[in-house]
């Protein structure tokens, strides 16, 4: 059975496991959003601590708590440990990430959605739907 994917709605600051909302504290949400935004890439404890403005030891406890809330038991499906380097969420476990604002050629845009698309070449691709922010 395939585990449900993670969905992040950064505009609403909510996270879902499949269609079920996750009950996360603010730091747990921020850690999950950081890992999901970097899906498939290792996030070091130091980088995550800086992102969360927290201590390294607190980040390790946060990952432990986050895994519990995800029901992520050994072998870890969602938040994988990379020995001596950090953690990652496998790319295939993040199905969508609604993010905030970004800039292209000096114009501000607000992302509406960020959806993973299958690829036959073995590469990862996302389609971003966005609208220009005016005013």
From TrEMBL:
The keyword Repressor does not apply. Pfam families: Trans_reg_C. InterPro entries: OmpR/PhoB-type_DNA-bd (IPR001867), Sig_transdc_resp-reg_C-effctor (IPR016032), WH-like_DNA-bd_sf (IPR036388). Residues 1-91 form the OmpR/PhoB-type domain. Residues 1-91 bind DNA. Gene3D superfamilies: Winged helix-like DNA-binding domain superfamily/Winged helix DNA-binding domain. The keyword DNA-binding applies. Keywords: DNA-binding. This is Winged helix-turn-helix domain-containing protein. It comes from Actinomadura luzonensis.
